[in-house]
TrEMBL record:
Residues 4-99 form the PilZ domain. InterPro entries: PilZ_domain. It comes from Rehaibacterium terrae. SUPFAM superfamilies: PilZ domain-like. This is PilZ domain-containing protein. One of its GO terms (molecular function) is cyclic-di-GMP binding. Pfam families: PilZ (PF07238).
Length: 116
């Protein structure tokens, strides 16, 4: 099966919480991530096509946590494997250039912590 996505997706092995910056509430954790979007695993129901301001942290190459804030559009949602669990797909529509570059490097890295 060939991959036809625009950006390479990377599974996030540890729990990375995602915060809605408008409410400062945790809305889930990252299932997979790319420079262009993410799949969120949680119990929060989002409005299709709506825009959200989200924040999460990723480890850099030195093990330090780097905060990332994105503007994201909700694209799809599906039932997850657990009771009440939802998988939600987001497309990033606004991200600072510096963070976008970091995400591209992070998503292409073979292991967490590879980006410099």
């Amino acid at each position: 099966m060939s991959e036809h996505r625009r950006y390479k997706r990377r599974t996030v092995p540890q729990a990375v919480e995602v915060i809605d910056t408008m409410t400062e509430r945790v809305v889930g954790r990252i299932g997979n991530l790319s420079a262009g979007g993410m799949m969120l695993i949680g119990t929060t129901a989002f409005t299709e096509e709506a825009l959200y301001q989200l924040r999460f942290t990723l480890p850099d190459g030195r093990g330090r946590l780097r905060p990332i804030q994105v503007g994201a559009q909700m694209l799809w949602s599906d039932s997850g494997s657990g009771s009440g669990q939802l998988w939600t797909g987001f497309r990033f529509i606004a991200i600072p250039t510096r963070d976008a570059g970091f995400l591209r490097i992070w998503a292409d890295a073979a292991e967490v912590g590879d980006p410099a």
